[in-house]
From TrEMBL:
<feature type="signal peptide">
    <location>
        <begin position="1"/>
        <end position="20"/>
    </location>
</feature>
<keyword id="KW-0732">Signal</keyword>
<protein>
    <submittedName>
        <fullName>PepSY domain-containing protein</fullName>
    </submittedName>
</protein>
<feature type="domain" description="PepSY">
    <location>
        <begin position="5"/>
        <end position="86"/>
    </location>
</feature>
<dbReference type="Pfam" id="PF13670">
    <property type="entry name" value="PepSY_2"/>
</dbReference>
<dbReference type="InterPro" id="IPR025711">
    <property type="entry name" value="PepSY"/>
</dbReference>
Amino acid sequence: MKKTLLLALLASLASTAAFAGAKCEAHPKDKWIKEADFKKKLEADGYQIKKFKVDGNCYEMYGKTKDGKKAEIYFDTVSGKPVKSEIGD
């Protein structure tokens, strides 16, 4: 029982670590798209934002796509282009 629980815990941690962070290019803060403006753009594109934050040099969004799929996406802070994403069901 303990061994099964430990294996399940390790598998969970490994899957979480596999998607940890993204490597976004560092840009001067005065060049970044304003957070409020970028969030409005995402919402206009159909995203439902549950959580939005700065993660290192990236904007990170948790929520849903316009198709209603669960999404975790890292964006470049100047271009707004996705750098890394995980889209679920």
